[in-house]
Specification:
two-stranded antiparallel sheet; 2 strands; ubiquitin protein ligase activity; transmembrane; ligase activity; transferase; transmembrane helix
């Protein structure tokens, strides 16, 4: 290429041109800098600050604070703290807004509950319209079927398996038929509204779709936050501030004050103050009262046939109901489980309720959070175990538990559609089940251990300052290294599944419940072509169960031909007695398993540790972890040996030689990778960051190699994780290579 210049071009660029170019560049840069500063100031300063100050002003509860609000917003006291608090408030309001939009989607797609649509010919989707038309044409029967709430909890019920649920269904159908008679007088009134309501709904839907699409095309994140250089974002800032204020008023201020006045009126004030969570409890009470008020107003609006306001009140009630149910399911239930676990295990740590009360008084927030966390972990592992059971047992045995893996399972739809008393019943049942399992697997074993081995308990978990490793680093290690290592071993899950299967097979053959627990897969495969009556002749001592029956028909309609998830089984004589014996057998097994888990690892760990530390008391986390690893290794070794037994002695010796060599190599690598590298990392961190911050220049820092190593392990894990997440470079390749080798 050869550069061609204009003939009147000077030989070198004039100085003023260079300066002009520089000035325009600097001008652009300054303009951008101002703009971005304004953006940052607006989003990180103005929005959180106004949110926080408005929130504080509303909750001081005096008129003077309202009058001085403009001055309060402009004041410069506690800027950083207020900004952080304001960010939290803004996050909460945005989450509430997104949840509301999402809930609206759920109601639109899943259909509103039957009572909301009852006397209104304006369903939200085509399917609903067809169903309602059919219901009107075919009278009560069809409606009774449609009215059944979609309830995955009772999904797999077999006729004859649970008479109580059938009775309930019969009752519901009778109620539905009565409703149908009541509705007939109202239908005339509805028809008049139907035409304009329907057209309105149609326009509404069309308008929504078009407008939202166009708005979404124009509005990008850059445009919304003001990063594209335009000043449109100031309007968005104004909208966010308004939205914040509206949400604080509607979702915090009103419920709080409703609750506050009712609590003061009922004279429960000192009880609420004693709980240390005054604001939260008051707000929840306010929401409960609000829900009751909405239901009453909804009933009144239905009486005087105000269709629009009736629907609005119904939707508001659904929003309040769903949010309260979420709080109960995710907040209250794990909290109850956590406290119950703590109370049942007090004797294990030689603590009393008084100690727990003192710790709650000194730090209520932390205590509650820790108990909630423990309860959440318990619920999570319980659910995981139920999923494992589902893999082993016949589909339909666990009909009373919700199947979390079911594609049709939608908890939010359940919250929208099922009435409150059903949720309440389910909640109480869950509390009873979870609570009795804790009693069976924690409280009872502890009593038995105390009776049989008086010197074994309590576990030693006191925090001593002269322990060789600080407890913090120990717990970090336990969470980061030990537990994942135990849980990530695919073997552990396989063993557990194998144990469950073995137990089920044994129990099935002892009590003649093999068909009920595991199904007749083998028989079905062999006799796929045989007639049912031949099978009946073969199992002459059993009464075969009638297929899926009425409930399955309902379920099929509800799920539009989805899977029912039930497998027929043959029913032995004295069936209820056998089921009772099965439950007793299960309880005894759980008790023995719990006893073994509570004693064996700690016993083994204490015995092993006594060689190293003598009679000194050690934190029980060490002994339990050590014992668990030893038990795990023993079981692993036994299973491997059993697998190799048939191959003869020479092969086993050959394998042992190979493995010994491998273990030697692994040990050397492990000492380098898990010992030296973390120790050096921890020391480096201590020398470069911790020591200069903590130790004055005229003093000598003390080093604790154990602690440095424990923190080094954590640093090594974090560094490796970040490197593996990042782009491809030599360190990532090396770490991957080490992992593969």
């Amino acid at each position: 290429f050869c550069t061609v210049y204009s003939p009147d071009m000077p030989s070198r660029l004039p100085i003023q041109d260079i300066f002009a170019g520089l000035v325009t560049s600097i001008g652009t840069a300054i303009r951008y800098w101002f703009h971005y500063t304004l953006v940052a100031f607006a989003w990180l300063g103005v929005v959180p600050l106004t949110a926080c100050r408005i929130y504080k002003c509303l909750f001081t509860g005096s008129v003077s604070s309202l009058l001085t609000l403009p001055l309060d917003i402009l004041s410069t006291e506690n800027l950083v703290a207020d900004c952080l608090q304001g960010c939290f408030v803004v996050t909460c309001t945005l989450c509430a807004f997104i949840s509301l939009v999402w809930l609206r989607e759920q109601i639109v797609h899943g259909g509103a509950p039957q009572w909301l649509e009852q006397n209104q010919q304006q369903p939200l989707n085509g399917v609903g319209q067809q169903n309602e038309a059919q219901a009107v044409v075919n009278g009560g029967v069809e409606n009774a079927v449609l009215d059944q709430p979609a309830n995955p909890a009772a999904e797999n019920v077999v006729v004859g398996e649970n008479p109580e649920i059938q009775e309930e269904q019969v009752d519901e159908e009778e109620e539905d038929n009565e409703d149908e008679e009541d509705n007939e007088d109202e239908e005339d009134a509805v028809v008049e509204d139907a035409a304009d309501a329907n057209n309105g709904a149609q326009d509404d839907m069309n308008w929504n779709a078009l407008e939202w699409d166009r708005a979404a095309e124009e509005l990008t994140w850059e445009r919304m936050l003001g990063l594209d250089g335009s000043l449109v974002f100031l309007e968005h800032v104004f909208w966010v501030v308004s939205l914040n204020t509206l949400f604080i008023l509607a979702f915090a201020f009103c419920p709080y004050h409703i609750g506050h006045f009712s609590i003061v009126g009922l004279g429960f004030e000192e009880y609420v103050q004693a709980s240390h969570f005054e604001g939260l409890i008051t707000t929840i009470v306010g929401y409960v009262l609000l829900a009751v008020t909405l239901i009453v107003c909804h009933g009144l609006a239905a009486l005087v046939k105000f269709q629009r306001s009736r629907r609005l009140l119904g939707v508001c009630y659904i929003v309040v109901k769903v949010s309260l149910l979420v709080v109960v399911e995710i907040g209250v239930f794990p909290l109850i489980c956590g406290w119950w676990l703590d109370i049942c295990s007090l004797e294990m740590f030689d603590a009393t309720l008084k100690d727990r009360e003192l710790s709650f008084q000194s730090a209520p927030g932390t205590t509650m959070f820790l108990h909630w966390l423990v309860g959440m972990v318990y619920v999570f592992y319980f659910a995981s175990f139920i999923l494992l059971l589902r893999e082993v047992l016949r589909p339909g045995v666990l009909w009373f538990l919700r199947n979390l893996n079911d594609p049709d399972f939608n908890p939010v739809q359940e919250m929208i559609h099922l009435p409150i008393y059903r949720h309440l019943r389910r909640f109480i049942l869950s509390v009873i089940v979870f609570g009795s399992i804790v009693l069976l697997m924690l409280w009872l074993p502890i009593r038995i251990i105390k009776y049989l081995l008086p010197n074994f308990l309590p576990y030693n978990v006191m925090l001593y300052s002269d322990a060789p490793v600080s407890e913090l680093s120990l717990e970090l290690l336990l969470l980061q290294v030990v537990l994942p290592a135990l849980l990530e071993q695919g073997h552990t899950r396989q063993w557990l599944k194998g144990l469950v299967r073995a137990w089920t097979v044994t129990a099935g053959y002892l009590l003649d419940l093999h068909s009920y627990l595991l199904g007749d897969q083998e028989e079905n495969e062999n006799n796929a072509n045989q007639q049912p009556n031949n099978q009946h002749a073969r199992n002459n001592n059993a009464i075969p169960v009638v297929g899926e029956g009425l409930h399955a028909a309902h379920q099929a309609i509800l799920q539009q031909g989805g899977p029912v998830g039930f497998q027929p089984y043959r029913r032995p004589l004295k069936f209820p007695l056998r089921i009772f014996l099965l439950i007793v057998f299960m309880c005894i097994t759980l008790l023995i398993a719990s006893l073994i888990c509570l004693t064996l690892p700690v016993f083994a760990g204490r015995w092993l540790m006594s060689f190293w530390t003598g009679t000194a008391k050690i934190h029980e986390l060490y002994t339990a972890a050590c014992g668990l690893y030893v038990c795990w290794l023993t079981i692993r070794a036994v299973t491997v040996l059993v697998a190799w037994m048939p191959q003869g002695r020479r092969v086993i010796f050959q394998k042992v030689k190979e493995w010994s060599l491998m273990i030697m190599k692994t040990l050397i690598v492990a000492i380098l990778l898990a010992g030296v590298v973390p120790l050096l990392l921890g020391l480096l961190f201590e020398l470069v960051i911790v020591a200069p911050l903590r130790v004055p220049l005229d003093q000598t820092p003390l080093f604790y190699p154990w602690q440095d190593w424990a923190l080094g392990v954590l640093h090594a894990k974090i560094i490796a994780a970040i490197t593996l997440m990042g782009p491809q470079w030599w360190l990532k390749t090396v770490i991957e290579q080490v992992g593969k080798n």
